[in-house]
Amino acid sequence: MAEHHTSAPVEVGASMDYNEHEKTYAGFTALVKWGTIATGALMIALAFGFFVGGFFSALIVFILVCAAAWFLL
């Protein structure tokens, strides 16, 4: 078997910039949260528009659901 000889210390990588890491994670979680809310609001608006009829009524429902989520969260 081949042997692995190293005389120098093993490099573990550069130091972490934890502030940037936390900002990236916060941005990702916000994107997932609002993306999920927008998708749910879109599904509700599409169902409302299908059963009640009308593009503008579905658009109003979409805006109302997003506004309600904004105030509740």
Automatic annotation (TrEMBL):
<dbReference type="InterPro" id="IPR036596">
    <property type="entry name" value="Cyt-C_aa3_sf"/>
</dbReference>
<keyword id="KW-0472">Membrane</keyword>
<keyword id="KW-0812">Transmembrane</keyword>
<keyword id="KW-1133">Transmembrane helix</keyword>
<protein>
    <submittedName>
        <fullName>Aa3-type cytochrome c oxidase subunit IV</fullName>
    </submittedName>
</protein>
<feature type="domain" description="Cytochrome c oxidase subunit IV bacterial aa3 type">
    <location>
        <begin position="4"/>
        <end position="50"/>
    </location>
</feature>
<feature type="transmembrane region" description="Helical">
    <location>
        <begin position="41"/>
        <end position="72"/>
    </location>
</feature>
<dbReference type="Pfam" id="PF07835">
    <property type="entry name" value="COX4_pro_2"/>
</dbReference>
<dbReference type="InterPro" id="IPR012422">
    <property type="entry name" value="Cyt_c_oxidase_su4_bac-aa3"/>
</dbReference>
